[in-house]
């Protein structure tokens, strides 16, 4: 237990320091949205700190292979996400979602409001969601098949994120594109990247949380639940859709396409009636 507390306290300090530096950068740039880049990088830093500190305090019970495997998977996900968001944000101003959350621009509301509503919340969320990674760094592997299952689910999530982002970029670069993106993975879920994020963190929980025993799994299961909540309800899909629903064709797309979990699109009522008549 003392080893877990040392790793967790160090992870908390890392998350706090990162958000402090990000808040100062946001004030300099006038954009709170820089926190989105720090989000992915923060998980990489916390995972790295957990692996290093875990190795230093470990008394030989934890499995080093699982510890470094988890770090590698978190790094692959977090660095890709940070790079993607940074590339997408070049040349753009503040994210409208943050202006809505803050009630104005950073200049309008001041840094203190942004720290309270964005940086403190995201720093705490980063630390909490990464709890399975922290605990797994100093815990013995309970069963390796859960580690393998978690790695497989992580891979599914990364594929959804990577392919979904690539398909969206291709859509945006097409001058003949339709009003709404409904190709590829976007035909089955309106947010393949958010769904992929959830799979990644449920996979890491299987590897480092439940893979360390049912007690550890139960103690850390709220971490992927919190990530899923953020992706669906807080700063993710629901908030984005308040804007997207104003776009031409999007309400019809939303009516036939699952918001989060992938599934075949719903058949249009008119198409179903035509099929019956044709039969």
By DSSP, the count of extended strands is 0
Strand content: under 5%
Mean pLDDT across every amino acid position: 89
Rounded to the nearest angstrom, the distance between the terminal CA atoms is: 67 Å
Unreliable spans are: 270-279
What is the total number of structural domains?
2
The biggest beta sheet, please?
none
* Approximate helicity band: over 70%
Individual helix count: 14
Report Rg.
21 Å
**Global structural class:** mainly alpha
The coarse overall form would be globular
Order of SSEs: HHHHHHHHHHHHHH
Note the main attributes of this structure.
279 residues; mainly alpha; 2 domains; 73% helix; disordered C terminus
Would you kindly provide a written description of the structure presented here, covering whatever features stand out?
This protein has helices at residues 2-29, 35-57, 64-89, 96-102, 106-109, 111-129, 131-136, 144-172, 192-209, 214-220, 222-234, 237-244, 250-256, 269-278. With 279 residues, it is mostly helical. It has two domains: 1-140, no CATH class; 141-266, no CATH class. The chain is globular and about 60 Å long. The relative contact order is 0.12. The model is unreliable at 270-279 (pLDDT under 50).
What is shown here, in short?
With 279 residues, the chain is mainly α.
